[in-house]
Specification:
The structure holds 2 protein chains of 2 kinds. By secondary structure, chain A is mainly α. Chain A is about 75% helix and about 0% strand. In chain A, helix 2 packs antiparallel against helix 7. Helices cover about 65% and strands about 0% of the residues of chain B. Chain B is globular, with a radius of gyration of 17 Å. The chains are: A mainly alpha, B mainly alpha.
Chain lengths: ~210, ~190
């Protein structure tokens, strides 16, 4: 095939394409719906959650994953573009990690040492570790399908970004159910659960997002 | 001068992404000799045969086509183009069992190849064409090889124009997928 003929054919296939950000949204939202239905049918909202507010631990537990989530979406998009620049978003993520560390330090300062272990282990770390990855599965699949339209320089990293996006969403959702409020619990188990989702995303991305 | 080229390419690709097929064709035509020079330079650096250069150029054009939505309209288009070109060239060389380090930054200076040869052909895509599903293969052949328009292809194959467009798009996407996953061109 002559290059000029190929070019002519490509130009005939010139229907406008959906922007990548909108594709990510359209891929992600059905996954969110699946997770919300699962959430509503199984664990549901924590009883008396709103009566417990205001409580800085609960606000932090729910607000922190939302902040990570808001950062991870644009990050995944940058990682999926040739010449994308993820650095500003990585800096924001590092700042968020510093906030998490600060919350842990504050908790250690105000909590009597004999409660540290109790709060760290919490009531149901195992359920947390199961449900966050479970509720991130459908959004992660949706995000990966969307990012398949992208062109990541490092497909594994882009997949990890999608994993962070889906994992942070699931963590925020799970936080509205979870009875363990201590930043010690959040920093340990939530982080671990989201890391699992990121690893899955990276593995899937390094296969599925190659182009 | 390079800034001029970038702003021209940007406005062409912007028009193309809005659906302007002629602007798109011009964009790709201007790109091709520059990509050819780029690929030849890299192949020369790895002492690779020049014969496969056109395979890689077509590979890059396909990738640019299928990934054009990843360009942000406010960003420079030249670095975007060369990032894709670099990715596909390394990919192609790797599939041929060669490793190469490609510096990122000296691409802006690349000019079109001295000898413009718009009619270079690649046999590699033709070979991949044979592996496509029937309808896609016939449509791509009619348009890319026989030179038909969408409506001519539709008439010849007794399909609707919409179906021809869909088959063309899927066929091109499948060709790109085969070149990035399939075996080497050699």
């Amino acid at each position: 095939m002559k290059t000029d003929d190929l070019i002519r054919s490509l130009a005939l296939d010139s229907a406008p394409r959906m922007p990548l950000a909108r594709a990510l949204l359209y891929g992600f939202l059905p996954g969110v719906a699946v997770s919300l239905v699962f959430y509503a049918l199984t664990i549901g909202l924590r009883p008396h959650l709103f009566d417990l507010l205001p409580n800085w631990r609960i606000v932090f537990k729910i607000g922190f994953p939302i902040a990570v989530f808001a950062c991870a979406g644009p990050l995944a998009l940058q990682l999926a573009r040739p010449r994308g620049d993820p650095r500003p978003l990585v800096f924001i993520l590092i700042a968020l990690l510093a906030v998490l560390a600060a919350a842990v330090i504050i908790e250690l300062a105000i909590l009597p040492p004999d409660l540290w272990r109790v709060r760290l282990i919490g009531h149901n770390a195992r359920i947390c570790m199961m449900l966050i990855p479970l509720m991130s599965a459908a959004p992660l699949i949706g995000a990966l399908i969307a990012l398949h339209r992208g062109a990541p320089q490092n497909p594994g990293l882009a997949g990890a970004g999608a994993g962070l996006f889906a994992g942070a969403f699931a963590a925020a959702l799970y936080a509205t159910h979870c009875p363990d409020d201590s930043p010690l619990f959040v920093a340990t188990w939530y982080t671990l659960a989201v890391l699992i989702v990121m690893v899955v995303g990276a593995l899937a991305g390094s296969r599925w997002l190659r182009w | 001068m390079r800034a001029d080229r970038d702003s021209e390419w940007s406005s062409l690709l912007r028009a193309a992404n809005a659906g302007d097929s002629l602007a798109y064709q011009r964009f790709l035509r201007e790109l091709a000799p520059v990509l050819r020079a780029f690929v030849r330079r890299l192949l020369a650096r790895t002492n690779s045969a020049g014969a496969e250069a056109e395979d890689i150029v077509q590979d890059i054009l396909l990738a640019i086509h299928l990934k054009r939505q990843t360009w942000i309209e406010t960003a420079a288009v030249t670095p975007w183009v060369f990032t894709i070109a670099r990715h596909k060239t390394i990919d192609a060389l790797r599939r041929r069992g060669r490793r190469i380090d490609v510096p990122i930054d000296d691409f802006a200076e690349i000019l079109a190849a001295d000898t413009e040869e718009p009619n270079l052909a690649s046999v590699y895509i033709d070979r991949q064409l044979g592996t496509l599903p029937d309808v896609q293969r016939k449509v791509v052949q009619a348009i890319a090889v026989a030179g038909d328009s969408i409506s001519e292809a539709a008439e010849k194959l007794t399909m609707t124009q919409g179906a021809v467009r869909v088959a063309l798009h899927r066929g091109l996407a499948a060709l790109a997928a085969r070149t990035s996953k399939g075996g080497g061109a050699a």
